[in-house]
């Protein structure tokens, strides 16, 4: 057995190079959209989209490689959805804070992240969460990403009268996504190896043949310069001198902490990594996120988070950090081959998200639904994520209700002190973001 296979424990995890390479590749293509979506969102804040593209790719590569090599988990990290919108639309556009100052706020939050991770405070918090709520987080993430997939496919659309409704199922782009979902489900049902990845390839081919997906005009391009965003956060540190900015920093901390913690728990449950209600090497996994957030703040992108799309790689058999090494390698390669990534449209990734959502919903059966004190907060977590379009908001709803239901049923002493503290923090958090 080679050194690499021994280091990543291939034999213990019952995996192989082929499986891990397929898993890492699948995860990358499932989340490649962030390379283009993140620059679009942050450009609304006045940032240079080309620089953000390069910063997104480099930050994702560094954080994901750290996750793979040090934490040895098949989980990828990249600038998170939701928090990038908070940065651009709430802080910069809504509050009128210059993007350089907002980026300085992220840098401060990142340093705090590094400190609480080094002292294993984040790890202790994760260990204090009850098993049922961890299962609810995993299932909620499943519903959340399935909802994203259905929306990206055009199957579910916004409706001002009913909030959401069925989309135009006869449109060419929606039909392409439906084709991908059906094909992937058939492949999964027949237990075809790498079914999700194969489904994405078939959907891309059909999209090209039907001209729903345009072939790129060139294969290779130079990476855009980082000059417009590099180091701007350092120069703006002196502008963090108001209570408003302190609240912005705290919000970045809360959102990124629980987006990553919640996603890690959900993915660990899916892959079977949890042991005695604890995630082995959780400290190293959390450190990967802290490193990514710090690097991103320095070179110019919004906070990072463990990506739920990693579940697609886990679903095809990824069980070691070597899968993340492959994903990180693709992020580096994407700097030169960015035109090729235009082939991976939302219609191509939507089927993977829907299918993985189905797989993750399996965690619902393990929750103790007979005990209302457990069932109520679990349900709020599960339903809250897709309805608020936020992993951290869904967790907040459940974590606030959990101590209440436990106290009223005479089990106050069974609630970990950290859970009481988290409930109070989440109350302040929800008040702040909705005030």
TrEMBL record:
<dbReference type="Pfam" id="PF00860">
    <property type="entry name" value="Xan_ur_permease"/>
</dbReference>
<feature type="transmembrane region" description="Helical">
    <location>
        <begin position="103"/>
        <end position="121"/>
    </location>
</feature>
<keyword id="KW-0813">Transport</keyword>
<feature type="transmembrane region" description="Helical">
    <location>
        <begin position="77"/>
        <end position="97"/>
    </location>
</feature>
<feature type="transmembrane region" description="Helical">
    <location>
        <begin position="51"/>
        <end position="70"/>
    </location>
</feature>
<dbReference type="InterPro" id="IPR006043">
    <property type="entry name" value="NCS2"/>
</dbReference>
<feature type="transmembrane region" description="Helical">
    <location>
        <begin position="286"/>
        <end position="308"/>
    </location>
</feature>
<feature type="transmembrane region" description="Helical">
    <location>
        <begin position="314"/>
        <end position="333"/>
    </location>
</feature>
<feature type="transmembrane region" description="Helical">
    <location>
        <begin position="194"/>
        <end position="213"/>
    </location>
</feature>
<feature type="transmembrane region" description="Helical">
    <location>
        <begin position="133"/>
        <end position="157"/>
    </location>
</feature>
<feature type="transmembrane region" description="Helical">
    <location>
        <begin position="372"/>
        <end position="405"/>
    </location>
</feature>
<feature type="transmembrane region" description="Helical">
    <location>
        <begin position="340"/>
        <end position="360"/>
    </location>
</feature>
<keyword id="KW-0812">Transmembrane</keyword>
<keyword id="KW-1003">Cell membrane</keyword>
<feature type="transmembrane region" description="Helical">
    <location>
        <begin position="417"/>
        <end position="434"/>
    </location>
</feature>
<feature type="transmembrane region" description="Helical">
    <location>
        <begin position="243"/>
        <end position="265"/>
    </location>
</feature>
<protein>
    <submittedName>
        <fullName>Nucleobase:cation symporter 2 ( NCS2) family (NCS2)</fullName>
    </submittedName>
</protein>
<feature type="transmembrane region" description="Helical">
    <location>
        <begin position="169"/>
        <end position="187"/>
    </location>
</feature>
<keyword id="KW-0472">Membrane</keyword>
<dbReference type="InterPro" id="IPR026033">
    <property type="entry name" value="Azg-like_bact_archaea"/>
</dbReference>
<dbReference type="InterPro" id="IPR045018">
    <property type="entry name" value="Azg-like"/>
</dbReference>
<keyword id="KW-1133">Transmembrane helix</keyword>
<comment type="similarity">
    <text>Belongs to the nucleobase:cation symporter-2 (NCS2) (TC 2.A.40) family. Azg-like subfamily.</text>
</comment>
<feature type="transmembrane region" description="Helical">
    <location>
        <begin position="21"/>
        <end position="45"/>
    </location>
</feature>
């Amino acid at each position: 057995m080679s050194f690499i296979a021994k280091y990543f424990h291939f034999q213990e995890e019952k995996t192989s190079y082929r499986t891990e390479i397929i898993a890492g590749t699948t995860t990358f293509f499932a989340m490649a959209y962030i390379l283009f979506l993140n620059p679009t969102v942050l450009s609304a804040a006045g940032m240079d989209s080309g620089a953000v593209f390069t910063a997104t790719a480099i930050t994702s590569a560094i954080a994901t490689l750290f996750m793979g090599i040090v934490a040895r988990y098949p989980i990828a990290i990249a600038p998170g959805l939701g928090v990038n919108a908070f940065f651009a639309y709430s802080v910069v556009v809504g509050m009128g804070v210059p993007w350089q100052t907002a980026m300085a706020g992220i840098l401060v939050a990142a340093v705090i992240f590094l400190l609480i991770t080094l002292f294993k405070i984040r790890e202790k918090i994760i260990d204090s969460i009850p098993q049922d709520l961890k299962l609810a987080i995993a299932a909620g993430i499943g519903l959340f990403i399935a909802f994203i997939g259905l929306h990206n496919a055009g199957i579910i659309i916004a409706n001002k009268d009913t909030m959401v409704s069925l989309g135009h199922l006869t449109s060419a782009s929606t039909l392409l996504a439906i084709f991908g979902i059906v094909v992937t489900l058939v492949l999964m049902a027949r237990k075809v190896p790498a079914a999700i990845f194969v489904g994405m390839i078939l959907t891309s081919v059909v999209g090209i043949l039907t001209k729903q997906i345009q072939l790129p005009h060139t294969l290779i391009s130079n990476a855009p310069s980082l000059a417009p965003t590099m180091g701007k956060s350092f120069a703006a540190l002196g502008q963090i001198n108001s209570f408003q900015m302190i609240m912005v920093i705290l919000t970045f901390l809360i959102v990124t902490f629980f987006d990553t913690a919640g996603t890690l728990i959900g993915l660990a449950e899916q892959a079977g990594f949890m042991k005695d209600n604890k995630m082995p090497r959780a400290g190293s996994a959390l450190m990967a996120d802290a490193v990514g957030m710090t690097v991103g703040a320095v070179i110019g992108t919004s906070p990072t988070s463990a990506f739920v799309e990693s579940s697609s790689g886990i679903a095809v058999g990824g069980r070691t950090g070597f899968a993340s090494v492959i994903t990180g390698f693709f992020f580096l390669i994407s700097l030169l081959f960015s035109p090729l990534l235009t082939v991976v449209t939302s219609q191509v990734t939507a089927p993977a998200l829907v299918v993985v959502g189905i797989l993750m919903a399996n965690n619902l059966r393990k929750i103790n639904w007979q005990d209302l004190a457990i069932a109520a907060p679990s349900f709020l977590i599960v339903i809250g994520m897709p309805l608020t379009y936020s992993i951290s908001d869904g967790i907040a709803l459940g974590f606030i209700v959990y101590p209440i239901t436990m106290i009223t049923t005479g089990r106050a002493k069974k609630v970990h002190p950290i859970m009481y503290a988290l409930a109070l923090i989440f109350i302040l958090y929800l008040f702040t973001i909705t005030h």
